[in-house]
Amino acid sequence: MTNTSTQAWRQFGASVRGSQHERSGLPNQDSWGAQPLSGDGEGLVIAVADGHGSPKACRSAEGSRLAVQAACQILNEFVAEHRSAEIPVVKAEAERRLASRLVLQWRALVTRDHATNPINDEELSRVQTAAGESARRTLTEVDGFYHAYGSTVLAAVVTPRFVLYFQLGDGDILVVPRPGEETLRPIPPDEHLIANETTSLCLEPEKAIGACQVRFHFIQGEFPSLILLSSDGYSNSFTTATGFERVATDLLAALQSEGQEWVERQLPDWLAAASSAGSGDDVTLAVLWRGPAAATPRS
Amino acid sequence: MANRPGGEFASRPLQFMFIADCSGSMQGKKIESVNIAIRESIPEMQRVGDENPNAQVLVRAVRFSSGAQWHVAQPTDVKQFRWADLAAGGVTDLGEAFGLVADALKVENMPQRGLPPVLVLLSDGQPTDNWEGGLKSLMAQPWGQRAVRIAIGIGDDFEPSVLQKFIGNPEVQPLVATNAPTLVQYIRWASTVPLKAASSPASRTSAGGSGQGNVPIPIAPPPVTSGIGPGDVF
């Protein structure tokens, strides 16, 4: 299938609770979401977020949900604000301002959530039992509650003129430029993020903003055929990086031969198999791809 | 299941290392207790491995006295791990032991998707070499900084500040074993509880390279005080 005007952006995704969380009784701490762009013009934004799941991050399931909400909102607003701007201006603004807008919007959403439902003594007691006094103390300090909601966030927005990629923390963004071509990574993995350490939305704003990565791809001709976002529970399940990167090309081949509905039906089982045989972590995947234009993209 | 995308799956490697003092002062009851404790801990470590199947626990051991050597050189799956007794004699070249561990934890020798390593140091005395240089090389490794580091001081003559510097976290103290039952208890605890904590897939925000480590470890039990025979006291 070629990348033609008879195609449109399609999206789908899935998130499964990790096998380790099933054993320990913890909920899925990942989230994902997608939105069509507001206003005229074709486009979509997708986001994946991975709540930390550590004892101190006792509300990170909610934190990841708010991260997806913030990412979709801010990216949608950004595209709308720059609909008529010249490409170099859009790129410069994205690189200069997107990180701070997204981080601060997440903090605003968390502040609002915490204001209506402050961390209570029972939660603090569980944190202390599981992670010690210093973890409990952190949550009770001024602005410490953000750590309870700690999460990463990955996002991509596709418009008629450009594609934007955004990442804070672990997880992966894969792109297949054209069918049959090798998988690319618009944002290379951060080699400092090892041994389950990650940067996070819950860091002090300056540190969180400084840890964000934004990549801008000006579309001249063809759109990429497939964009994939996944939480690190997925990549950590594969023996090799190459084996993981093959997911993107294999998925595109399956979408083209079997169709999206078939792939969507298999996806939860595929992700669950990865968690069970691999990382044990929650596994979340969201995909944008150039599919037949006849179907209406779902939000 | 329909052919799924991508390559092979595998659980995540977790390196567990004993770093054992085999100096002359460890002769007798101390080294005997270390050997008994480690051997008796293996079924418990295997149980932790079974309960956390997404972590592949790989065990190694360093011994140090006059110099340092690998006692178990190859990372050995805990399911196949067997313990050969240590013998004691010589001085206390802790720095050389740290150097061996530092080499093993170099980025090029570690799997990128690995879980935080667990290092358990057992020592009864004062180091006799440049231990600070060795510790510096260990903590210069990103995997060394992020390792869970537990220290057990044996008897009364060890230097607490050395063990504390190895742990690198002011909120975690060295465990002190002044008798054989306590040493056995602490080795059993150190072989299982930190292992279970490090096996978790939960993420943590960076400790900023401070070396304090980031894996919350439950508090160890108190020392054994009852049923201690005269021959059990170090």
Task: Please give a structural write-up.
The complex is a heterodimer of chains A (299) and B (234). Chain A is of the alpha+beta class. Chain A contains 9 helices and 10 strands. Chain A has helices spanning 19-24, 60-81, 87-116, 121-131, 133-140, 205-211, 232-235, 241-258, 260-277, and strands at residues 7-16, 30-36, 44-50, 153-158, 162-168, 172-176, 197-198, 213-218, 226-230, 283-292. Chain A has a 5-stranded antiparallel sheet, covered by helices on one side. In chain A, strands 1-10-9-6 form a 4-stranded antiparallel sheet. In chain A, a hairpin with a 3-residue loop joins strand 4 and strand 5 (162-168). The two termini of chain A are 24 Å apart. In chain A, 52% of the residues are buried. With 234 residues, chain B is an alpha/beta fold. Chain B has 6 helices and 7 strands; from the N terminus they run E-H-E-E-H-E-H-H-E-H-E-H-E. Chain B has helices at 29-51, 94-104, 131-139, 142-145, 160-167, 180-198, and strands at residues 12-21, 55-65, 67-77, 118-123, 148-154, 175-177, 204-205. Chain B has a 6-stranded mixed sheet, sandwiched between helices. In chain B, strand 2 (55-65) and strand 3 form a beta hairpin. Chain B is globular. The mean pLDDT of chain B is 93. At the A-B interface, helix 1, helix 5, strand 7, helix 7 and helix 8 of A face strand 7 of B. Strand 7 of chain A pairs parallel with strand 7 of chain B.
Descriptive tags:
heterodimer; A: about 300 residues; alpha+beta; five-stranded antiparallel sheet; four-stranded antiparallel sheet; 10 strands; globular; disordered C terminus; B: about 230 residues; alpha/beta; six-stranded mixed sheet; 6 helices; 7 strands
